[in-house]
Structure formats: C-alpha cells, structure tokens
Amino acid sequence: MDQDSALPDDPPACLEFSDADDKDDLGGSNVAVQDTSNTNVKLEDLFDEDDDEEFPSSGVPREDVPSSSPPPSPLQVAPSAKYSDPGVMKAFYQRLFPFRYLFQWLNHSMKPSNDFGHREFAFTLQNDAYLRYQSFPTSDLLRKDIIRQNPSRFEIGPVYTTNPRDRKTLRKSSAFRPLAKELVFDIDLTDYDEIRTCCDKANICYKCWSFITMAIKVVDVALRDDFGFQHIMWVYSGRRGAHAWISDKRARNMDDQRRRSIAGYLEVIKGGAQSGKKVNVKRPLHPHLARSLDILKEHFQNDVLVQQDPWAQPEKAERLLQLLPDKMLNDALRKKWEAAPGRSSVSKWADIDALAKAGASKNLDGKALLEAKQDIVLEYTYPRLDVEVSKKQIHLLKSPFVVHPGTGRVCVPIDSRRVESFDPLGVPTVTELIHEIDAWGPQNQDAELEGESKKLQDYEKTRLKPYVDYFRTHVGVLLRAEQGVKREREDDDPMEF
Predict the structure, then answer these.
(1) I need a labelling partner for 60 at 20 to 30 A (CA). Which of 85, 193, 208, 483 fits?
(2) In whole angstroms, what is the distance from residue 116 CA to residue 158 CA?
(3) 24, 155, 182, 186: the active-site residue
C-alpha cells in the first residue's frame, strides 16, 4: 500500500455501548503459565509470500496449480453468532489476524531475535483466566498457540533479559528484568466525563470522539517535533479510546525515569473531577503549549462550545465563573446569565469579553483574564492522558488487531495524518468480517481465477484490508530504519582497521 493511502472513513452513525469497564491495559499478576517448546522454524517457511498459511484463502483452487491438500472451507458463521463465540474468535485468528506483520513490528527484523523471543505476551482466555509470561521464538509458534488457546484478547509486554518462560529457573530473581518496550500512551474518553455532555462511561458518539481527535493531533506533533520520534502508530482501542505505540529504538530502550519525564512533559490536566483549577502553567507559555493552543482553538469553538455546550446548565456555568480571575466581572456575568436561562455556551463565552470591554470591572487585569481564558481552553480540549500507562516498561497494553470483548470491533490502526476522517463506529466487527469472507461468492472467485496468479488472502476480501495494508507499510518503514541503524553500528566497529 502506498504510504499516503488513506484508511476508510464511513458515513456517520451513532452508537451506544454497555457500561462494562474496559481493561485496555493490564499490570502484572502472577498466574499459571503454560510452556511452549522452542521449535526451530526456517525463515523461508515464515516469510514465503507465495504460500501464505497465515492468511489462507477460502476461495476455490486454481486448476493449473496442483495441490496436496484440499482448500480451506468457507467460514460458515450463523447470522446470530456473537463476536464472543469461541468459534468466531478462532476463525478470526485463523483467517484474519496479521501475525506475520505483528512479529516483524515487535522483532524489528525479518530474522527471529530476542526482541521477539524474549517478549512477554499475556492471554485472557474465554473463561477469563489470565496467563502471563507467554513467549514465542517465531510468529508461527505465536499463531499456533493463540489458535490453540483461543484467547478473547491478548496483551503485549516488554522484552526481558531472558525468556519469560524461564524466569523461575534463574538463581537470582533480579536477573529477570525488562530491557526494552515501546513507549506507549493511552487516551480514554471516560477521563473526559466531566466535560463531555453527549455521553458518559462506556458510551461514545461522534461529538465526544472529537476529544480523541484533538488528543492525537497534540500528542503526535509533540512526539515528532519535540522528541524526534518517527515510528509512531496510533491504534483504536475498540471502544472509547486510542493507544500510541512509539517503536523508535531510542524510545524502546528508555528506562522508567525517562518515560516518566516524557509523560510529565505531556501532562497538563491534573486533578480529579472534584478538584479546582486543573490547568496551572507558567507564563510565558512553553512552545509546546503555545502550539497546542493554536491546534486546539478551532476545536474549542466548534467541538466544545457548539457541540458539547458545556455551560448550558447553571451549575456548569458556575464552574466557568470559578476559573475567571475577577469577582466583579463574575457577578456581572452571573446576573446576565440568570436573566437569560437558555443562553448557549457560545454566547456565554462571548459575554466574557463583551462585559470586560464594557467596564463591568474597574480593576480588571486584562492580562490575567487572557491567561485565564487560555487555561480554560486547555482544560476543555487538551489531552487527558492515563500517564501511569506510559511510565513503566513492565506495563502491558492490548495488542493491535485484537477484538474488543465488549464491542466486537477490531483494534485497528489510525492514520494520524487523516485522524479527522477516522470513524470509530464504522470500524468492522469480527462477525461482520467473517460474513464478508462468506459473502465472497462464485462470481468473485471466478474473477480471481481469471486475474492475477496469486490468490487473494481472506483479509483482502474484507474491510480489514486497508488497516492491514497500513500496518504493513508502517512495519516496512520501521524495518528499513532498523537496518540503517545496524549498518551504522557496523560502519563504526572499533575493531575495524
């Protein structure tokens, strides 16, 4: 796929979800671990593009190509099947999950290495058992074990000093420690419940999804421009949020102190729902905050004031007044709003400047008012990060392309260059994808036989295709960069005369 290819954007629709809590990221707990033997797998078997067992096709075989085994049968899923059905999940892993590209993304090379072999995976099984410290030397073994155990989801952890399965055989427990992991960020709409008026808890709509859009814009440009990171992939959490994975080698090798520093740099909103002023920043504004305000001001006017109307209710309007610095101005505003109960947030925001210019307060400090208004814009638009996810290497985070157990939607990548076109409610569910494979009828199969010699893989027959293609492109860029780093190290070899 061309690197500039866009991911799909579907027609608007609204949807509400149940109030079940997400578990998008999980910490550590010791549970039973199952062993997997270390089997050597040839590279040509792993990456043979001509016979891709990872993405089998359910189409008819070509008559001119001999086959030693019958083609896989079409995936017959009952119309009433739930996305949580074990059979549905197994079909998804067998036919659609991009294990090969996941391996390359986490391994940073085509050849198996400790970057993958010493990586922790954690499975949540269908009976809610949670298996930590799973590890696999190759993508093929990961795929086989996931199909065998058929987890409802799985998380990705750090690369350790040794194989996670062997941790209990070490003489000293301190010898088992994390070495590297992608720098990650987590944004969840439940952290916006005090300012979004359209939905709450697990429910989302297009109005409040704009908060995620704002967050991705602000965080992505900061990571790229302020820290120089290049290999950033945003992933839809499957319900009400997004995750950022930064795969640059410099980011992966950061210790916890540096991770805390970057998280602290990006953290501006502080305090819970019952706390007072949540934005307390120094003046003059840091360039990152000045740039963020420039990005967010248009969103504040439309997505917050118009779409959310956050100060429509008197108690919410009182919250706005608490953030302004002048008592006399506040009294004048309160009196005006009490006389016009239905006044919109757009009008109330305009009233602040109008009454200030009209002399509502003789001792008004114009500079303090401007700064207070900037802080208000930040409080209602700036990203609300779950910074604890970012601070430690050992934190586990849900893998891209798994199925969200509460919605059935696949956790697909988000193109940060076209973040405003991303449609969270148009992301396909696992049952929709399997029905799309089944719907690939004889007419399409005949066209496939008459066309290119290479048969279509099952994911290419579904709406998952653009997301897998985007992931493949992202991984390809990362692998090229890693090869360049390796060459530089070889060129600088001190043993070379």
Answers:
(1) 85
(2) 10
(3) 186
Among 22, 120, 248, 458, the active-site one is 120
Compute the distance between CA of residue 155 and CA of residue 150 in angstroms, rounded to an integer.
14
Catalytic-labelled residue, pool 24, 25, 54, 188 = 188
Q: What is the pLDDT of residue 440?
A: 87
Pick from 152, 187, 189: nearest CA to 17: 189
Does the pLDDT value for residue 357 go beyond 80? yes
The CA distance from 334 to 189, in Å, is 30
Look up 432 and say whether it is catalytic. Answer: no
Secondary structure letter of residue 3 according to DSSP: T
Structure tokens at 423: 């449609």
Cα 141 to its chain centre, rounded Å, is 25
Q: What share of the chain has pLDDT > 70, as a percent?
A: 77
A 10 A CB-CB count for 350 gives: 12
Report helix, strand or coil for 132.
Answer: strand
Global pTM? Answer: 0.84
Q: Is 309 part of the annotated catalytic residue set?
A: no
Contacts of 132 (CB under 8 A, 6+ apart): 28, 29, 30, 31, 33, 120, 122, 157
To the nearest 10°, the Cα dihedral for 249, 252, 255, 256?
150
CA distance 151 to 55: 19
**pLDDT of residue 221 exceeding 80:** yes
pLDDT at residue number 20 = 36
Q: Is 186 a catalytic residue?
A: yes
What do you get for the CA distance between the two ends of the chain, in Å? Answer: 43
For position 488, what pLDDT does the model report?
54
Return the pLDDT at 451. 56
Residues 6+ apart with CB under 8 A from 75: 58, 91, 95, 434, 437, 438, 458
